[in-house]
Design a protein that fits this description.
Strand content: 15-25%
Shape: globular
Number of strands: 10
Order of helices and strands: HHHEHHHEEEEHHEEHEEHHE
Helix content: 25-40%
Number of helices: 11
Length: 341
């Protein structure tokens, strides 16, 4: 049966709900789905049933940044800029800084919207992906700093495992002459180098536990249908991932406890590999101070092969995967233990 082109029937209305819902599940993006939900009541009802959801949290600009940007755009190079705009700019800067400290109890909460605010209209989420805003101070090959720090953690009710890959320098092969021309570095970690890597480890564990606590908040906000989760960041530095089994374990633990407690890092055992200069012929690069750490709770007995398998499967990028493969096959490794915090 044909459709009269002059009729006011919307062809999209003829699609069954199951097909429209499949489209929404492939869209995933929360902002796009939220925009669709206000188009009509039918879309609003179907969007609420979407099972695959991806949320990117963007960082809000502070009032101080907006004011600073406005002054820089309009700043003159003459006497007016020197004797009028600069003093006035400094005065406004001090006033805004003082106001932000006195008016906001928690400055970070005002920097971006919490996930619960953006997910409140989704009632049947099963697969959730959250991307947090990156920060200028993050150590990542993405920000051009030359250093590298990447991690991936898995959680149930607490930390199950964490893999960290770090380097004090990372360069492409055509830029590595400075690395090769240096005197041969010692193959053993010095105390100073070891302390730096302990700081890396602690910072990654704190970041991962903070994201795990965020997930607790999301689940407690009536999102009990979630089965798998991935929380990453804009700097591509760290990721926590949870399977359906791990989410169920967390949910059972939450049912036993009244209120949301901070996710504590358990006592852990750290196995670490270190190579002063690691060449990556397949990726065409060189890592200086290349370090790989595999972290597990001390109470969990594991074999050497388990650590190697966990490490090699942690990262999907070409140069990181190659670096991990070469590091785990080095003869020497370090074992450290860290108390709960």
């Amino acid at each position: 049966m044909g459709i009269d082109q002059n009729s006011e029937v919307d062809v999209f209305d003829l699609l069954p709900d199951a097909l429209v819902l499949e489209v929404f599940n492939r869209v995933e993006d929360v902002k796009s789905l939220s925009a669709c939900s206000v188009l009509c009541k039918r879309f609003g009802d179907l969007v609420a049933q979407t099972q695959n959801v991806s949320l990117e949290i963007t960082r809000r600009k502070t009032l101080q940044e907006e004011v600073s940007k406005g002054w820089h755009m309009n700043k003159s190079k003459g006497l007016i800029a020197r004797f009028v705009l600069k003093p006035l700019h400094a005065l406004v800067h001090r006033m805004v800084s003082r106001k932000s400290k006195t008016c906001c109890d928690d400055e970070d909460d005002d920097m971006f919207r919490l996930p619960n605010d953006l997910l409140k209209n989704f009632k049947e989420i099963r697969s959730l992906s959250v991307k947090l805003p990156g920060h200028d101070g993050d150590i990542s090959s993405e920000n051009g700093s030359g250093a590298l720090l990447k991690w991936k953690a898995e959680f149930g009710k607490q930390l199950d495992s964490c893999v960290i890959l770090g380097a004090t320098g990372f360069q492409k092969r055509d830029e590595t002459e400075t690395l090769k021309s240096e005197a041969p570095a010692a193959s053993n970690l010095t105390n100073k180098q070891l302390k730096k890597r302990v700081v890396w480890t602690i910072s990654c564990l704190i970041a991962s536990s903070a994201r795990h606590h965020m997930l607790k908040q999301i689940i407690s906000w009536n999102h009990r249908t979630i089965r798998d989760v991935k929380i990453s960041d804009g700097s591509k530095q760290g990721t926590i991932q949870m399977t359906e089994k791990q989410v169920v374990e967390l949910r059972k633990e939450m049912d036993k406890v009244v209120g949301l407690e901070r996710t504590k890092v358990p006592a852990v055992t750290i196995k670490m590999w270190y190579v002063p200069v690691l060449e990556l012929p397949e990726s065409g690069g060189v890592m200086k101070g290349a370090t790989l750490a595999v972290i597990r709770p001390t109470t969990v007995p594991v074999e050497k092969e388990d650590d190697v398998t966990l490490a090699t499967g942690a990262f999907g990028e070409d140069f990181t995967a190659e670096a991990v493969r070469k590091l785990v096959h080095t003869n020497k490794s370090y074992t450290l233990e860290m108390n709960s915090f």
